[in-house]
Amino acid sequence: MSGSTDRPTLGRRGFVVGTAAGAAGAALAGPLAGTARAAAFGYTDDGTHYVVDTGADLVFKVRKSNGDLSSLVYRGTEYQGYGGMSSHIESGLGSSTVTIRQSGTTILVSVAYGTLRHYYAARSGENNIYVWTNKADTSVSATRFILRVRAGLFLNDEPDSYTYAPTTIEASDVFRKSDGQTRSKHFSKLRVMDYDYVGWSANGVGLWIVRSNHEKASGGPFYRSLLRHQSADGGGLYEILYYGQNQTEEQRFGLQGPYVIAFTGGGAPSSSLFPGTLTTPWADSLGLAGYVGASGRGRVAGVGITGRNTTYPYTVGLANSTAQYWGSARASDGYYSISGVLPGAYTLTVFKGELAVYTTSVTVSAGGTTTLNSIAIPSTNDPSNAGVIWRINDWNGTPSGFKNADLMTYAHPSDARAASWTGNVVIGSGTETSAFPCYLWKDVNSGLLVYFRLTAAQAAAAHTLRIGVTTAYANGRPQIAVNNWTSAIPSPPTQPNTRSLTNGSYRGNNHTFTYNVPASAWLTDTSQYNILKINVVSGSGSTSYLSAGTAIDAIDLLS
């Protein structure tokens, strides 16, 4: 289901992310991997823990009192634990009912905590732990699994991760190094659709979390959230099922998984574990609360999409209040196929980049395929098709191309690598987009100026100016002035109510502000520059980079 075909990327000291395509030639884990020991598959009870031996190279323990994963011994080395903490949902569930049973070649550990159900499954001969989490309501505030790893095993200093001995610059989770680079566990170069697994590889050992299909998560294919962090006392890998940072949707409830903790001999995890590939018919009879097997799911397939701008990738998403899915549209003709979908009625959305350009409704039935005729995207649905006098950037639902845009997915705006957030823009200079900052803040660079000339005919008419944004913080929104004319203050659109621009995410609700500029606002002397001033206004926010702000998608003046 990933939209990327990049190969796995190895960090300087072992951090790796990857996709299904990228792992094609990598070392295999799971049922295709060889074993280095001939232990007996099974479990024991030591009084405090259930001890599970996979019959391969992995022995793990689950604490009977609370369901914490308290030990991960791979090839005789303990990998679990930093700061004396175990791996668990949230920061640990507390007193829980924990049971275990073996069914042939599968061992299942079940954890009950109030209305929440959590499961670990082991398969004979595999160095994998299959994990499911069923969150039924809001009694648990968020849903994230944290795999906590001992210090010194995979330490690295990747750009989008926590680092060692940092200086805190924002809240308690954004830090600055001595060289001026910034780090935070929140930063993520990757959207959910961009990776299949995340983890580390060093000294002939790979430790990974293979993400689930995220059908019960919230935020869609473009959501960015915690992947991992490293610090002096150890490291953590995450599977985020719902996280209250920069959310654009209500949380979904129900069984999510499996996500997989996988050990390998250093290579990428087996592609058979990846989202969209993983099948678990062996789990059909385990009695997992909320489990729906393959026979209870359906598929959506579309023969193509016309009206696309082939410069951009297109993604097709399915969403309702209980589930979400997505798939990439084929570049040649827009064909798409999304399988493993729970039955129900969904909104189907076609995204150009990250900008929704078409929606319709589909119904999915268990065991069936919903086949859709070719979708024709109306020309008016893509704002890039409108005639313009000038345009800064193109409309694709992201700030990509603007100054500092790529850096901001893995750095704080104060990072030493960031170009100046101030500076004005001249239309016709050839640097309009690269000179325009991706973010505007009330307390940092409000009042940015755009200089442009009009012909006599253009200056004689009223025109519409559009500013597209991808999110906003503290209700920050643009108010414009053209020469001596000033617009009204627009109403704020609905946006997430948490930090975003300083947490590595521009993803909110795409919104277009339109301003009807009268002919009287323009200069009649065609040799002079008209001056557009863009201010950020809001009665909320703090100071500096936590003042009210917004992320820009595109700006244009319609002809």
Highlighted features:
1% helix, nine-stranded antiparallel sheet, 40% strand, globular, mainly beta
Mind sketching the topology for me?
Layout lengths: L8 E2 L4 E4 L23 E4 L3 E5 L4 E6 L5 E6 L2 E2 L9 E2 L7 E7 L2 E8 L2 E8 L4 E8 L7 E8 L16 E4 L3 E3 L5 E2 L13 E6 L2 E6 L17 E4 L2 E9 L11 E11 L33 E5 L2 E2 L7 E6 L4 E5 L7 E6 L2 E9 L2 E10 L4 E4 L2 E2 L11 E5 L32 E2 L5 H4 L3 E3 L6 E5 L3 H4 L3 E11 L3 E6 L2 E2 L24 E7 L12 E8 L11 E10 L1
Textual characterization of the structure:
The structure is a single chain. With 559 residues, this protein is an all-beta fold. It contains two helices and 40 strands. It is globular, with a radius of gyration of 25 Å. The two termini are 40 Å apart.
What is the number of helical segments per DSSP (H or I, 4+ residues)?
A: 2
Summarize the amount of helix as a percent range: under 10%
Q: Structural class from helices and strands? A: mainly beta
Span between termini:
40 Å
Main sheet: strand order: 1-2-17-18-21-12-11-10-9
Query: Could you tell me the strand content as a percent range?
Result: 35-45%
The largest sheet, given as strand count, sense and whether it forms a barrel, is: 9 strands, antiparallel
